[in-house]
Amino acid sequence: MLISSKREDASEHRLSQRAGVASTLDMAPISEEAWIEVIQKMDAVYADLVHHQVELERKNAALEDAQQFIGGVLGAMTDVLIVCDRAGQIERVNAALERLTGKSEADMIGLPLAILFAQESRPVIERLAGKLNDSPPIADHEVALLDETGHATPLAMNCSARYDHRGNVQGFVLIGRPVGELRRAYESLNIAHSELRQAQRQLVVSEKMAAMGRLVAGVAHELNNPISFVFGNMHALKRYGERLTQYLQAIDEGGSPEELQVLRTRLKIDRVLADITPLVEGTLEGAERVSEIVQDLRRFSSTQSEAADTFDLARVVRTAVSWVVKAARTKPTVVFDMPETLDVVGRKGPVHQIIVNLVQNAVDVMADIEEPRLDISAHVKDGIAAVVVRDHGPGIAKDATARIFEPFFTTKKIGEGTGLGLYVSYGLAEELGGKLEAANHPDAGAVFTLRLSVKEAGHEG
Ligand SMILES: Nc1ncnc2c1ncn2[C@@H]1O[C@H](COP(=O)(O)OP(=O)(O)OP(=O)(O)O)[C@@H](O)[C@H]1O
Ligand SMILES: [Mg+2]
To answer: Which ranges carry the Histidine kinase domain (predicted)?
Structure first.
């Protein structure tokens, strides 16, 4: 519209010019061709002008578009953006900074950048202007920006130098990501994680306590043996004491050597004297066994993690097996294939717990079979201890194979199993740096293998 109206104005102007020229023809006669040439030149100049005008308006529109685009991008940024000159004075900021600081861009332009930051971050910010040749002057550096209430808000700040078209440094651009939100999210994730770990530890403890409940009968059995042994010995010692007292009394009363000899033979004093030492030793051994069982029980029920120490893996396996088997309704025949002692360095509590769980499962699946049998082997080779528990039950059901290590997976009746035994055992094996594997034996029954990397005692270091 503008262009066409201008064109009309110009035509009128030319016509009036032509009229003017005609009126002066008599004074200075100019040829028709000359006039035409002048008019053509004027038309060309005018067309040029129009072209420039159109071009200018197109560039203006493009510039406006670009400015709107940049403004839109800056406004949409959630990160904070600050543009500074070489001296570190603010030239431009985005809406995110305005929101965070509660100040308008107009208020901030011309201020020294450091003013926006908390005291502890100012030295770093003030040094930026002098570090513009480093690439980048700072990267992911945490600084504290003052928010609208004057509180420090952590920002992960990146800074890069800004150049003009000749490549000269004009200033710098800072981009900061508020990390408060991120940090809060991270902290709540951390809390959730530690609560989960706590819940898992609780699960391990509950599982252990449930196992303890089942083991009580077996442990009582185990204790019964040495205790009855100690009792028997003590009764014998009591009788022996009575005989010795009787004999000593006869000596005190001044009995003749013949009488004393008869008494000595009747009271079997020589046998008593010979028996005392083995009886005392036997009693001590029984008491020690009781104390060991109590210690094993305490270790088993303890919720504290013990330190690695030398222990006899063969003894741990035997104790675990006997606790479970003694408590079982149907007692399987147990066939051991392992050395008398197998000293290794590690944590015996979790190993004991795993074996109790494996043997308990084996005993459970064989509860109704005719000749229950348990094959237990333990060996150490090349720093790996392998304990294998094989039963002669029905084997692991096909559809259960993939799920037996899942928490709460059980095929037992309600109240008979929680489905935590293998899950907890698997976790314990991993914690020990080992592995628990399950398979079915080609002949029959399930085979569980616990592999642990252990140092053989005496070979460590
Ligand atoms: N020796 C085995 N033979 C066949 N199946 C087994 C054997 N051991 C475990 N399973 C299967 O794996 C399931 C999970 O065993 P897990 O020990 O985790 O739980 P559970 O014995 O059912 O319950 P609990 O928490 O009391 O141990 C069992 O219910 C059973 O189906
Ligand atoms: Mg179980």
So the answer is: 218-456
